[in-house]
Amino acid sequence: MSTPRTDVEQVELANTAYYEAMERGDFEELTSQWLAPLDTSDDDFEGEGAVVSCVHPGWPVLNGRGEVLRSYALIMANTEYIQFFLTDVRVSVSGDTALVTCTENILSGGPAPEGGDGLGPLVGQLVVATNVFRRTADGWKLWSHHASPVLAESDGEEDEDTAG
After folding, report:
1. What is the pTM (predicted TM-score) of this model?
2. Cβ within 8 Å of residue 148, ≥6 positions away
3. Distance between CA atoms of 83 and 118, rounded to whole angstroms?
4. Cβ(79)–Cβ(56) under 8 Å?
């Protein structure tokens, strides 16, 4: 594989690595994808600090690396299987900050029902996400993840719209 040459390509790879770590349930790798607290001796960011944030679908906003990473540990501990099919991926880079928007087409399954083998029922979910990355000496790191469910129209709503 060739080395990515542009910032956009590097951000795309960082975004993909984040979702792949989730799919594998690799908490260590997922942790490495998130921005670490800034060194307070950095004059460019005096007193600012890099507080990460995360909003999972249906959750309140989580602030701070510890709170965010605990949420992922909880999700990984209670999810036997998860797969992301990303669509509508858009990347925008401005200086040392990058914005990625995408649609997460999620397929997940929990533990098997009591006494059963394998996975519980698979569930599909459509989520739109915004991921904000920041350039560091170690590459692009996730600063904020915000995901919201997409509400699907019911059959009744479609009938009302076409009934005229």
Report:
1. 0.80
2. 55, 57, 127, 128, 129
3. 16
4. no
Q: What is the pLDDT of residues 35-69, one digit of tens each?
A: 988 644 444 443 345 799 999 999 999 999 999 99
d(CA 130, CA 139): 19
Residue 88 three-state SS: strand
Q: Assign 47 to helix, strand or coil.
A: coil
Map residue 104 onto helix, strand or coil. strand
In whole angstroms, what is the distance from residue 139 CA to residue 116 CA? 43
CA 142 vs CA 28, 64, 112: distances in Å: 14, 12, 33
Task: Name the 3-class secondary structure at 162.
Answer: helix
Contact predicate 15/89, CB 8 Å = yes
Can you tell me the distance from the alpha carbon of 122 to that of 79, in angstroms, rounded to the nearest whole number?
11
